[in-house]
Amino acid sequence: MTGNQASAGHLLRLIRTGEATTRGELQEATGLSRSTVGHRLDQLFRAEWLRDRAGISTGGRPSTRLEFDAAHAVVLAAALETRHARLAVFDLAGTVLAERTEPLLLEDGPDKVLVRLAEWFGPLLAEAGTAPGKVCGIGLSVPGPVDWEAGQVVQPPIMPGWDRYPVRRRMREAYAEHVGPVSSDPLPVLLDNDANLMAYAEQRAGFRDCGAFLLVKVSTGIGAGVVVGGEIYRGIDGGAGDIGHIRLPDRTDALCKCGSFGCLAAVASGRALAGQLSALGIPAASGSGVREHLAAGRPEAVRLAREAGRRVGEVLATVVTLLNPGVLMIAGDLAGAPFLTGVRELLYQRAMPRTTANLQVVTSSLGERAGLTGAAAMVVEHLYAPDRADARLAALESVSREPHLSPGPR
């Protein structure tokens, strides 16, 4: 890193990643002088983003190590499913401070859903012992395609009324109305597809050394999240990973929620299996209902889940051949032994041995918290990326120079 690149935000990144955690190490990593490093660290300390801690002594005075202060702000996160929502308050290190799950119907539309989230966020912050103004951002996980730059859901098959709705603006308004003043104006609200965020969280939690990570979520719908080089791969406009709408040529009779026939989701999703079970006289309204039947060992559910796994494995043979991931993780309501067995059967049968020789096929380790964790991590990584951090530091220092203005929470 050259000196002109090593802004305060870049120093923060080196500290957060553990690449350089003392003043000497920062000088060596950046090529900056001692005084310049000190000046930029002063910016970070004034913002209350850093703290000192004693280092390890090697015989002389122990060096002072620098670390990111994960307690100076919090992130709110919500993972929306078709029939419920999970919400949590996180510190900036990803520790859950408070959490709850509430019934919520996505089909009620974005305005009603976002207002309900805001109403729940207030008591959740109180449970965490955190003031509303300490919130530095909100992350939302949604079961549909997302244009990440625009912060909008785009043509979601199972989210009626959400297409191009101004989620960011409405979430900010609802938060201000139902919770309280914000820590920054405007309050950062970020949203992404649930499979993307689950993949991001799982890769960071258990497979950081995996350069190409693939997660497939099979619940009410089917979607995939891809993490390459530690970053979510979204495609040109957020459409990457939408494998639930790959067509199966032998199932042109299956009508999908998107309006097309033969989609994988119309045949092998939790919604599809719920319909198949109901047709057999075994009531199931959604993927969670199928999961309950699988947990009870219902033979019909086990048989259908294994066959669904085979259909998904059939598609994944092509996906795995294209991406050559090191890890394929199966997550969601159907991520149990019958479904996984079916996936493996077809995947290893159809894919070339060279493609699967170094492939791990696993199930989720974070479980139902994966989407929440990924949503919180998305907000933190966005806000404390070097360029964004520098802009925020400049704004904080500008406010602090105005005697009639309070800098407020950081």
Topology record:
Blueprint: H1 8-17, H2 23-30, H3 34-46, E1 50-54, E2 64-68, E3 74-80, E4 84-91, E5 96-103, H4 110-128, E6 135-142, E7 146-147, E8 152-153, H5 167-178, E9 189-193, H6 194-206, E10 212-218, E11 222-228, E12 231-232, H7 264-268, H8 270-279, H9 287-295, H10 299-323, E13 327-331, H11 337-350, H12 353-356, E14 360-363, H13 370-383, H14 386-400
Helix pairs in contact: 1-3, 1-14, 4-5, 6-13, 8-9, 10-11
Account of the 3D structure:
It contains 14 helices and 14 strands. It has 410 residues and is of the alpha/beta class. It has three domains: 3-68, Winged helix-like DNA-binding domain superfamily/Winged helix DNA-binding domain (Arc Repressor Mutant, subunit A, Orthogonal Bundle), CATH 1.10.10; 74-195 and 370-400, Nucleotidyltransferase, domain 5, CATH 3.30.420; 208-367, 2-Layer Sandwich (Nucleotidyltransferase, domain 5). The strands form four sheets. A five-stranded mixed sheet has the order 5-4-3-6-9, with helices on both faces. Strands 12-11-10-13-14 form a five-stranded mixed sheet. The model is unreliable at 404-409 (pLDDT under 50).
